[in-house]
Amino acid sequence: MSQTTVSYKDEHIYEFTPDLEPVYTAENGESLTIETIDSLDGTIQENTDILDAIPEEVNAATGPIAIEGAKPGDVLKVTIEDVRVNENRGRVVTAPGFGLLQDHDDIEHPLTRITPVQNDSIEFEGLNVEIKPVIGTIGVAPATESYTTLVPHDHGGNLDTTDMTGGTTAYFPIFQEGAMLAMGDSKAAMSDGEMCGTGSEIGTDIDVTLEVVNDPPVSLERPLVETENEWKTIASAETMETAVELANRDMVELLKREHDFEATEAYMFSSLVGGLEISQVVDPLVTARDAVPKEYLSNPF
């Protein structure tokens, strides 16, 4: 039986606000296909198409999607079954005032390189790079403040985290009735850090199953992702130091509950088995994660 598709053509947003209205309401446990457009809305198709500045509206996120029964204090579980590219090219760009090396004289801004899709790879300047699609922007309606789809925060948003891909499960704190999930800004390939400011930006079809964890035993303040072998807390902040501190603080809380540790014991244990990872260093806030293998941390929900 085919499942419902929610497309960016139906509705998309450029800002996560507390008062979002849904384009679709999903049943708790429903599976959907989410169709997204590339982060630059199809404006870059050739190497001669360049980005003189970051647009005011960027990273179109398909949605919002309400989930029946979702209420503040609950947790939204997003099982990402598959992410498939849906066009024959991606694009990697630099733009003035954007990216890790934006102030380096030998780095050209703006510049575009189209990355044609060839079977399971993209091609960059004669080199093949395996397609490993990533959802760059994914999140829910925030608690009080509004954030553009260029900004990551506690609601998710522009996390640019390579673990947001097929075969993983993302968890988000719910701040508003219905949760109001939206996603987009996919990449055919992207490395941790997203150094130049983009991956290979591309449209995708994303298969997800949406479930609400009502009255969760663990209070979630920021996103959490489950991979095949690890649990990873995700945090965004103005500096990398603050982002990794928040991610580690969240992991300490999970380890305390798992092992009946005191806070200091959980902190010490995280220094033995955890691992800090960089998600991205180029958005208005930077994003980091703290990973712990599943042998030391079971499902907190």
Report on this model:
- The chain has 301 residues and is mainly beta.
- The chain has one domain (5-219): Sandwich (Jelly Rolls).
- Helix content is 10%, strand content 39%.
- It has 2 helices and 22 strands.
- The strands form 4 sheets. The protein has a 9-stranded mixed beta sheet. Strands 2, 4, 6, 12, 14, 15 and 17 form a 7-stranded mixed beta sheet that branches. It has a 4-stranded antiparallel beta sheet with strand order 8-9-10-11, with no helix packed on it.
- A hairpin with a 2-residue loop joins strand 14 and strand 15 (156-157).
- Helix 1 (240-259) packs across helix 2 (263-273).
- The radius of gyration is 19 Å and the shape is globular.
- The two termini are 30 Å apart.
- The model has no long low-confidence stretch (mean pLDDT 98).
If you consult CATH, what is the topology?
Jelly Rolls
* Helix amount: 10-25%
Structural class: mainly beta
CATH class: Mainly Beta
How many H/I helices? 2
Could you name the CATH homologous superfamily? Acetamidase/Formamidase-like domains
State the major sheet: 9 strands, mixed
